[in-house]
Amino acid sequence: MEKSLVVKSGSLTESRRKFLEKAGSTLVLSTLGAAFFTSCSSTDDSDPTTPPGNSSSGITISGNTITINLSIQTGLNTSGSWLLIENARTLVANVNGAFVALTSVCTHSGCSDNWTFGSNRFTCNCHGSVFDPSGRVLNGPASAPLQQFTTQVSAGNLVVFK
Ligand code: FES
């Protein structure tokens, strides 16, 4: 039986992004970002979340390859948008028009499902480690980088090679 796909996604609206930029503090950004992503509804600032299954989500996991149909996961076409594909333990984000993919298994103590993304930074909300889009540690307690995966756009799909 096929396991249902668990996906979280998000993106900041222009007004929310500008507000956060004006706040001007990394601490404020990560704090508000965490609260924002855990409290907003699907009609607020995030793109459609938690698609129920592979066929409707446009996301297919096959071995070490993840294929994301960008005409279904349209939110990912916007810079600042991101996905956490829990089943594949993978983070995907659009960073200034380029796609990045990283493991979602935090190098601090292994949390894999409690992430937010904002201002081009991934935050593991288990203990607050912050990583840049290439997986490098910006703030601990994690000390090792996240593994980065290769991405490729082909025929309207974003393909992630783990
Ligand atoms: S598990 Fe990610 S910061 Fe601790």
TrEMBL record:
Boundaries of every Rieske domain copy: 91-160
GO molecular function, one term: 2 iron, 2 sulfur cluster binding
InterPro entries (UniProt xref): Rieske_2Fe-2S, Rieske_2Fe-2S_sf, Rieske_Fe-S_prot, Rieske_Fe-S_prot_C
Keyword Metal-binding carried by entry: yes
GO CC, one annotated term: membrane
SUPFAM superfamilies in alphabetical order: ISP domain (SSF50022)
Sorted UniProt keywords: 2Fe-2S, Disulfide bond, Iron, Iron-sulfur, Metal-binding
Keyword Transferase: no
Cofactor(s), names only, from the UniProt record: [2Fe-2S] cluster
Cited PANTHER family: CYTOCHROME B-C1 COMPLEX SUBUNIT RIESKE, MITOCHONDRIAL
Identification of the protein by name: Ubiquinol-cytochrome c reductase iron-sulfur subunit
Organism, scientific name: Algoriphagus lacus
